[in-house]
Amino acid sequence: MPLTPDDLLRFLSENGIEARTYEHPPVFTVAESQALRGEIPGTNTKNLFLRDGKKTYFLVTLEENTAVDLKGLRGKIGARSGLSFASPEALYEHLGVRPGSVSLLALINDKACQVRVFVEAGLLDAERINCHPLTNDKTTSLSAQDLRHFLAATGHTVSEVTLDATETAAEAAGN
To answer: Record's CDD domains (predicted)?
Structure first.
């Protein structure tokens, strides 16, 4: 059974991880988040839960305005034979959340560390990083150091991924 948002916040507290949680209307997309969340200090993220043809699962976390080309991303994260969004069922099975609630904090439910984790280069250097705490009607803000502490406490290894200007420009142009 997946942990609840209250379980997650208790885990953070018990592990000395400082976090501030803000409530807002439920959001399902970056655009909705930008319109409804209000002014929450820090860097906001978008999260892609992906799978390749070999059913390897990936969580890719980016700054919310970063465009991404899945074809270009495939080689950067070591995906084999295709890369696509994972099903809502796989999302719930691996991270214990529903679409719209994906975040690095959902890794608390990946106890076997089966999901490979990639974070946009530089994001973990932000002063504050904002993530959904297993639900899309709240945002939890943590320092980069505390987020790193959380990831280590859950046993996850994080790899950085760099998206160059050519890839993001192609995505923005719809190519």
So the answer is: PrdX_deacylase (cd04335)
